[in-house]
Amino acid sequence: MRQEKTISKWFIIKSMALFLTLGFSTNAMAQMTVKLSDSEVKNIVQRSYQYVAMYNVIQKFALDPVSGEMFMDGFNKPAAATSLADHTLKTIARPNNDTLYQGTVLDLRHEPVIVEYPAFDSKYLVLETSSYDHYAAVPLASSEGDFKKPVKVLFYTERTEGYQGQKIEGVDLIEKVDGDFFLAFLRAMPHQADPARMARIVKALESINVVPLSKFQGKATIDSDDANFPAYGKSDGDVFENNLLEVMQFIFNHTSFDPDSDMDQAVLAAYKPLGVEPGKTFDPAKVAGIDGARFRAIAGEVQKNVLSTLTDKDLQARTTPQMFMPKGQIDLETQVVQSVAGPIGLPGYQARYLPVATKDGKPMNAQHDYVLKMGKDQQPPATAFWSLTLYDFKNGFFIPNAPKKYSVGENTGFKLNDEGGIEIYISEKQPEGVPAENWLPINRSDIGLDAMFRIYSPDAEKMKTWEIPELEMLPAAK
Prior knowledge:
Blueprint: H1 2-21, H2 26-33, H3 38-63, E1 79-81, E2 100-107, E3 113-117, E4 125-130, E5 137-141, E6 151-156, E7 173-176, E8 181-188, H4 195-206, E9 209-212, H5 213-216, H6 236-242, H7 244-253, H8 262-271, H9 292-308, H10 313-319, H11 332-341, E10 351-355, E11 370-374, E12 382-392, E13 407-409, E14 422-427, E15 439-441, E16 449-458, H12 460-463, E17 471-473
Parallel strand pairs: 6-7, 14-15
Antiparallel strand pairs: 1-2, 2-8, 3-6, 3-9, 4-5, 4-8, 10-16, 11-14, 11-17, 12-13, 12-16
């Protein structure tokens, strides 16, 4: 028995020496032995999607000029989009074309940050917030009587240095949030039909101020330009393939996870065997080796499945009540759907995002023209306003067109018929007799299309019985 133990010990020592001679380490050995089934990879992808999608969105807003008017050129800097988005916006899938934005990405690691909002003259305003974890919150909304007077909001996390939530003189609202890098996003109805009113709204958006606590109190500002961010991707697939573990390690280190949240604990459990845990420093030699191409392929399958089922009524019934809700009020399926279809949205009591199906059930394609007909009582039950927006199916971007017409609604304009109904045309050419306001241009090509209703301040009771109108394919022009 002693001889067997001695031989075993000798074998282990020789094996270790061989690995070291070949340039491997014990961590490399661990990399070589981690094997994941397709179901395990899919589980990791699904539980990661909310983080990967929001990491890309937040980093692009802060660091990538492709964000256009919403490019924030760093952190703790306000940026106001004072004109409606157009087809050049590539930061996020399925953006809207009917509200104006003001946003900032806050860096809350070293000190709290205060955002100063003025009073607004708009009937619809919502302050939406989210971190890398993609759980949404609404600290302020006009539907709750907010924005009638100026307000100062302080944001911090459990990791913010030197601050634990104590009252600060001059601050109206204190918000503890989950992420050290945090998006505060204000949406405002522009009231385009009233140019003077819209000008006042734009001026208010441009006056929003972002102030670190040290500066707010008249002290020397703390230098916060010391973050070492992993690369973000042009698409979510880029991160899944190229640097998933590095990105998730960074996110884990800058996000609060709830020990009582099943979803929080499940994503931590999925990454622990891969060597990624909160509080660790990312080291490629100390994490498991994963097949990036395989992760990208499975992420692509998840994305394809979501996009192909967006108009499924059973899926909508399950996910719509949970869309963009806070942690604990949204399940994994809904998180995946909203993260794939278009990150950053409002909870259902503030807005509804509803894909529109065709009457024949076939996917829309730009090789055909379509019409959506609504009678007076069939229009979306919005107490603020509604719109119908058109996208390309694959990327969720606006369809490029010379008139820069991407949606039909109160802000971009529409014309009702004599009975109070409306017909909206999606076509290559403006149909004869159809008002330009009711026309959504497309380019004749073999690409998928995607139409979505946005219903702002929905009437909860009427929404229970309202049926989404369906698109009808028009006969080919002769």
